Amino acid sequence: MAFITISGYPCSGKSTVAQKVKADLERRLQNTEYHGPSFRVIVASDESLSIPRSAYDDSRSEKPARGALFTAVQRHMNQDTILIVDAPNYIKGFRYQMYCAARESKLRVCTLYTVATPDVCRSRNEARPESERYAPETLQNMIARYEEPSSMVRWDSPLFTITWTDETLPMDQIWDAVTHGNVKPPNAGTQAVVKAPTSALQALEQTTTAMVSAITAQQATLDGMGGKVTLQLPNSEVKVQVMLPSRVVTLPELQRMKRQFVTVHKKAITLGTTEKGVVNWSEESIARKFATYLEENIRP
């Protein structure tokens, strides 16, 4: 249903904001004045996944930590859940990756940016129990590498900025974003490629060969006269119309056209295609495509 990303410096108040947002959303969903569908509100965080602060000490340990978080995020993305991601989320590429996954799941999205000064973050980090602290050099490194969200980019918008001094959250606007915001279609680049059936290559070869045979047989009855003719494919119920020129199209010509057509379409079969709802590898569809190809490429 919706996906909320919380981003900010370490110790900037992300977890506090996440819990406040969760509590407020649950309250609104349980309100007697709310008549919409019921939703679960889930917080996915480093704590819920037992990811230690030390995972951010170096890139070697941080990469699998982000991978574990992303896997958990994907697992919880569905139409009956409002998912809040409480993690550093300080790299814009990772926020974009989660945004694309949310679009694939047809979820509404928004980003909460928790703002605190580096000094406030350091002070809060020092006040934590030792097991919950970031190493000072790790904290400084994450602050230095932080890539600030921007309302100008689609994966961070709509963006709500919350400072460490704010006592209240813009919950009306957040509620509106997660319940009435636009649901963007999946990114074309992330959509699964539609593969041709295993019999497609055989059907391509057999159908085009049958077409060549049918045209050769039909021309024998035309005495060089062209025009639109209806071909009955050998050993098949498929009939297809093709416009022939006012001359005899020789067998070598037809064979050459067949090879060109097959070569072009073999690539689509082996690599797949993203033409949703258009790809059809049936005998009739191949015959019609080949007829169109011949009409466009045979010289008069």
What does this structure look like?
- With 300 residues, the chain is of the alpha/beta class.
- The chain folds into 2 domains: 189 residues, P-loop containing nucleotide triphosphate hydrolases (Rossmann fold, 3-Layer(aba) Sandwich); 98 residues, no CATH class.
- It has 9 helices and 7 strands, in the order βαβαβαβααβααββαα.
- The strands form 2 sheets. A 5-stranded parallel beta sheet has the order 2-3-1-4-5, with helices on both faces.
- Helix 2 runs parallel beside helix 3, helix 7 packs across helix 9 and helix 8 crosses helix 9.
- The two termini are 58 Å apart.
- About 2% of the residues have low confidence.
- Belongs to the KTI12 family.
- GO terms for molecular function: ATP binding.
- This is Chromatin associated protein KTI12.
- Pfam families: KTI12.
- Keywords: ATP-binding, Nucleotide-binding.
Question: What top-tier CATH class of the largest domain fits best?
Answer: Alpha Beta
| Strand adjacency order, main sheet | 2-3-1-4-5
Structural class: alpha/beta
Low-pLDDT windows of residues? 273-278
- The rounded Rg comes to 30 Å
Distance between the termini: 58 Å
Major sheet: 5 strands, parallel
Strand content: 5-15%
CATH topology of the largest domain: Rossmann fold
Q: So what's the overall shape?
A: elongated
Number of domains: 2
CATH superfamily of the largest domain: P-loop containing nucleotide triphosphate hydrolases
What's the overall average pLDDT, rounded? Answer: 88
> Fraction of residues in helices?
40-55%
Summarize the helix and strand pattern as letters.
EHEHEHEHHEHHEEHH
Q: What's the CATH architecture name of the largest domain?
A: 3-Layer(aba) Sandwich
Protein name: Chromatin associated protein KTI12
GO molecular function: ATP binding
Family: Belongs to the KTI12 family.
Keywords: ATP-binding, Nucleotide-binding
